[in-house]
Specification:
Length: 290
């Protein structure tokens, strides 16, 4: 009997040591919560289901789902003002559902108070304020600029656009990179650039009067960059525009890390918010000339 009691005590201590937790200030009293980003990939999937988040069937079929969810946990725990940078509608909506569930889990309201003063220390990979692969072009407090995503920025439209939008298409995460590249080319043709072409081979020259953009995908999203004044520029979601650190698009990672977040009324930017990367675009790159 004494042995059993001793074993239970030891196991209890080991569990408390191995599972990180935080104490947050609830409405009535302090409550201890397990740190969501400390869960295993499978536990993370099961956790958001118990939290009421609906997972699309095609997401459940992705091997990277658990790690993706943990990345979202980590980003929100590091900064509850983290800006959702995703372009594909089904991903954006899923991440927003996860965000609400996470804030509710930590008993946070929509005013984005810090979850815990210790969170940044516990998630050091998300606490850095140094962009790894890009630099902010400038602080642009334009309302028009705030409404652009990467696609709108790449082609000079002040909107959040989806490839294929001129034809009423809205592709899922499962569509191939060549499908997305072709949809962008068709959009451009519908916008009056009748000779828009796309290829996985980087052009050696850009014909006079033409524009060059590039597109790439991850399991969860797409991203575009544009070539301007001998530099590659891009805009992750609704964040601030940035320069890619290299002229060679294959020499560094494409991620959705960024700075800034538009206010809810789209009147100004919060410019000092670092948004940790939550996906890497690693498909083949397609180049589009128009």
């Amino acid at each position: 009997m004494i042995f059993k009691r001793t074993l239970c005590v030891v196991l209890s201590i080991l569990v408390s040591i191995s599972i990180p937790s935080i104490t947050y200030a609830g409405n009535d009293e302090s409550t201890e919560r397990i740190l969501l980003s400390s869960l295993s990939p499978q536990e993370a999937i099961e956790k958001i289901q118990t939290m009421g988040v609906n997972i699309p069937q095609n997401f459940l079929e992705k091997q990277s789902l658990g790690e993706f969810i943990i990345g979202i946990f980590r980003a929100i725990e590091a900064d509850s003002e983290w800006c959702n940078p995703f372009n594909i509608e089904e991903t954006y909506n899923f991440v927003e559902d996860v965000r609400i569930a996470v804030l509710n889990y930590y008993n946070q309201s929509n005013n984005y108070k810090l979850i815990s003063k210790n969170i940044l220390e516990m998630n050091s990979t998300s606490s850095t304020t140094s962009l790894l692969y890009s630099t902010v072009i400038e602080f642009n407090n334009s309302l028009l600029n705030a409404r652009q995503n990467c696609y709108g920025y790449a082609i000079g439209k002040y909107e959040k656009l989806q490839p294929g939008y001129t034809m009423g298409y809205n592709y899922s995460t499962d569509a191939s990179i060549i499908t997305y590249a072709g949809a962008v080319a068709y959009d451009l043709r519908n916008l009056g650039y009748s000779d828009a072409t796309y290829s996985s081979t980087k052009p050696t020259t850009i014909p006079s009067g033409k524009h060059l953009i590039a597109i790439r995908k991850s399991d969860w999203d797409f991203h575009l960059m544009k070539y301007n004044n001998s530099r590659w520029e891009h805009k992750p979601g609704l964040q601030l525009p940035m320069y890619f650190f290299s002229q060679n698009l294959t020499s560094g990672k494409w991620t959705n890390e960024g700075y800034g977040k538009p206010s809810s009324d789209m009147r100004f930017y919060y410019s000092n918010i670092y948004n940790a990367p939550t996906t890497e675009y690693n498909s083949q790159i397609y180049y589009i000339i128009y």
